[in-house]
Structure formats: structure tokens, C-alpha cells
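Sharing a chain and its predicted structure for anyone who wants a worked example. Both blocks are below, sequence first, C-alpha cells second.
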Amino acid sequence: IRLKSPSPGATVLLFQKIAIPGGTKVMELKWRQRASDLKPGAQAWFDARIMLEFRDAEDKKVPGAPGAPYLRKSTEGWMEKNMTVNVPDGATHFAIMPSLFQVETGTLDLDDFSLTVVEPAGK
């Protein structure tokens, strides 16, 4: 995935919703990332980030989303990242939203996403 800011203050976002297997309690999210020419915007959260949220069967947000991994400067090539995610009760889907959120400039490349169940219910 390549996200490139078309102009200062613009937001570029990709939304992907993934079904969570029933009974899942813990998942692991892995990916690779790199950023070039990245200059954050005026607010602390105007940066390159992967917003994450849980949704229920009615497509409503479920509390308990993990913090968004973010970058505020360019990287020296590719970085491998991973995080463990606790699945809250009632969550049936996990939304992943990579974005350049109101940055001044920048390109964000993401690759090799994987989301795996670490701990199903009853373990």
C-alpha cells in the first residue's frame, strides 16, 4: 500500500474491515512500514498512523480499541512492526485504517500485513 499526501493538510485514508473468528480473545497484527518526506501537521496527531477500531455485528464501534501506531518522521528504509490486540466482548470485526492524517507532506508505504489469532476462547 502506498499513501501519498496530495497537498498540505489533506487526509489520505484506507479503510479495511476484517471479520474476527468467533471466540477470539487475542490477535497479533504484523506489518512492514516506511515513510519518506514525512512532515507532520500542526497538531500532535497530524501524522502517519494506522487507526484501529472494533465493530459489532451492527457495524457500531465497540470500546477497547488499541492505540494507533504512528510515525512523525521519515524512516531509514523498511521497519518491521507488530502488536498484540485484546479483543473486547461484542467485537465481530476489526477495522484497520492506515492514513496520512493532515500531514504537511509525506509518503507512507505499508506491506506484509497479517492478523492472526493468538488466543481463542477457552484457552
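Comments welcome. The first strand starts at residue 2 and ends at 4.
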